[in-house]
Amino acid sequence: MIGRLNHVAIAVGDLEKACKLYRETMGAKVSEPLPQPAHGVTVVFIELPNTKVELLHPLGENSPIAKFLEKSPDGGIHHICYEVDDILAARDRLKAGGARVLGDGNPKIGAHGKPVLFLHPKDFNGTLVELEQA
Ligand SMILES: CC[C@@H](C(=O)O)C(=O)SCCNC(=O)CCNC(=O)[C@H](O)C(C)(C)COP(=O)(O)OP(=O)(O)OC[C@H]1O[C@@H](n2cnc3c(N)ncnc32)[C@H](O)[C@@H]1OP(=O)(O)O
Ligand SMILES: [Co+2]
């Protein structure tokens, strides 16, 4: 069921500084910041040859990454995203296996224009998992 690694997301407190680090020091291709109000984050994409890194910065008052950054002000790996061929079938299979799907359980359109869902980190070895429809 689980497919390609779509991205690894890193929450950052200082987006400009993190972009500069990846663009100038690491020599990566770094996008412009893209506000995602439906997700409470601003996202920057870093294109790698085999996958992507997403830099996340809180947007608005109820950002889902606010508490994470309070606990880790220097930032840190926030989630990993796997592609699945059929997100509703994947959701139902994971739920049947006891995993908790976050939010209202229905996919939202993510930063890449495709449906996404999140799974509780306590059910995946302490790692927040995002699923994206391939
Ligand atoms: C840009 C759009 C999209 C894309 O297309 O790529 C995105 O990536 S959007 C990214 C941001 N959106 C989300 O993260 C949505 C899903 N997240 C949530 O619903 C919540 O953040 C959460 C995972 C339920 C956490 O809620 P929160 O209120 O922040 O914290 P809690 O206190 O309830 O946490 C409970 C427990 O879990 C631990 N935790 C929290 N976040 C993480 C994490 N990212 N990785 C690992 N563990 C995490 C937290 O430390 C608590 O543990 P204990 O202290 O042991 O209880
Ligand atoms: Co993501």
Task: Explain what you see.
The protein is globular and about 45 Å long. Helices cover 20% and strands 38% of the residues. Strands 1, 2, 3, 4, 5, 6, 7, 8 and 9 form a nine-stranded mixed beta sheet that branches. With 134 residues, it is of the alpha+beta class. The structure holds ligand LP2KCY5N and cobalt (II) ion.
Q: How are the SSEs ordered, and which strands pair?
A:
Elements: E1 2-11, H1 15-25, E2 29-30, E3 34-36, E4 41-47, E5 52-58, H2 66-71, E6 76-84, H3 87-96, E7 108-109, E8 115-119, E9 128-133
Parallel strand pairs: 1-5, 6-9
Antiparallel strand pairs: 1-6, 2-4, 3-4, 4-5, 7-8, 8-9
The chain binds ligand LP2KCY5N and cobalt (II) ion.
Ligand LP2KCY5N is lined by residues 9, 36, 39, 41, 43, 54, 56, 64-65, 67-68, 78-79, 81, 102, 110-112, 116, 118, 121-122, 126-128, 130.
Enzyme class: isomerase
Domain VOC: 4-134
Protein name: methylmalonyl-CoA epimerase
Using DSSP, what is the number of strands? 9
Structural class: alpha+beta
SSE sequence, one letter per element: EHEEEEHEHEEE
Number of structurally distinct domains? 1
- For the record, the CATH architecture stands as Roll
Largest sheet composition: 9 strands, mixed
Number of helices: 3
- Give the end-to-end Cα distance, rounded to a whole number of Å: 11 Å
Strand content: 35-45%
Low-confidence stretches: none
Q: What is the CATH level 1 assignment?
A: Alpha Beta
CATH names the topology as 2,3-Dihydroxybiphenyl 1,2-Dioxygenase, domain 1
